[in-house]
Design goal:
Order of helices and strands: EEEHEEHEHHHEHEHEEH
CATH class of the largest domain: Alpha Beta
Number of helices: 8
Distance between the termini: 36 Å
InterPro entries: AAA+_ATPase, ABC_transporter-like_ATP-bd, ABC_transporter_ATP-binding, P-loop_NTPase
Pfam families: ABC_tran
Protein name: ABC transporter involved in cytochrome c biogenesis, ATPase component CcmA
Number of strands: 10
GO molecular function, one term: ATP hydrolysis activity
Helix content: 25-40%
Keywords: ATP-binding, Nucleotide-binding, Transport
Largest sheet: 6 strands, mixed
Shape: globular
CATH topology of the largest domain: Rossmann fold
Bound molecules: adenosine-5'-triphosphate
């Protein structure tokens, strides 16, 4: 399998405070990688560095062979990010938001209109297409933000606690959206605290603790969600999270 994302000796400090320590990581095309870890382990910082939103203090990141520091513009068109921040315009309708982001990515008009309809169907907001985002609940904004992140069919999708704010039905809908992405077209990296769901949907699991990767395994080597929970506790129990 081809590598889509490589980190070499990545470290990050805020002032004198080290958050990530010497991370080496290679993610192959088609993988669905979960990043687990206690509060303050450095998960969001790692995803921000992977997705060009933050720079490492040391080391380098490559996406599809492009060095992120030298070529962030071409890299950004290949990636999508779903995080706590929805990056939506409140004064625009759902459809106008998606049209705005689609145009920003240079998607042609006919393709874009079809894509907007398809995504609004998928996240079950087609009935609210013409309503302003300011009238949406938090969960609805999160669902629209999921559609926004997929508008340009990114090769690499970063998800930082994407279930935040979603009710049970919306979470299941979102699982379906993720499942429907062709793994060969979209590699996924997800920060989450939900071990049971991670076991169900991810193909590889990393555990981050104290700014280091303390566990990295294909999910197929782990027998059950219970076993993954035990592994998690054994890997984080000796460390105090900050
Ligand atoms: N902009 C910043 N300036 C200073 N310190 C920061 C900044 N962002 C994060 N940190 C610190 O870096 C450490 C790691 O934070 P990070 O958000 O990456 O953790 P996390 O594993 O995602 O945690 P959580 O599970 O709570 O979301 C924490 O100690 C945090 O206080």
């Amino acid at each position: 399998m081809d590598s889509i994302l490589s980190l070499s000796n990545v470290s990050k400090s805020y002032g004198n405070f080290p958050v990530l320590n010497d991370i080496d990581l290679d993610i192959k095309k088609g993988e669905f990688v979960a990043i687990l870890g206690p509060n303050g382990a450095g998960k969001t910082t790692l995803v921000k560095i992977m997705s060009t939103l933050s720079s490492p203090s040391e080391g380098s990141v490559e996406i599809s062979g492009h060095n992120v520091a030298d070529d962030s513009a071409s890299v950004r068109s290949m990636i999508g990010v779903i995080s706590h921040e929805t990056h939506l315009y409140n004064d625009l309708t759902a459809e106008e938001n998606l049209r705005f982001f689609g145009k920003m990515y240079g998607i042609g008009s006919d393709d874009l209109e079809n894509r907007i309809d398809e995504l609004l169907e998928q996240v079950e907001l087609i009935g609210r297409a013409d309503d302003r985002v300011s009238t949406f609940s938090r969960g609805m904004k999160q669902r629209l933000s999921i559609a926004r992140s997929l508008i340009h069919e990114p090769q690499l999708l970063f998800l930082d606690e994407p279930y935040t704010g979603l009710d049970q039905h919306a979470s299941l809908t979102f699982d379906k959206v993720l499942e429907e992405l062709d793994p060969q077209d979209t590699t996924r990296v997800m920060v989450t605290h939900d071990i049971t769901n991670t076991f169900k949907i991810c193909s590889r699991v990393l555990i981050l603790n104290g700014g280091r990767i303390v566990f990295d395994s294909p999910m197929s080597d782990i027998g059950s969600a219970e076993e993954l929970k035990e592994i998690y506790l054994s890997k984080v129990s000796n460390h105090i999270s900050v």
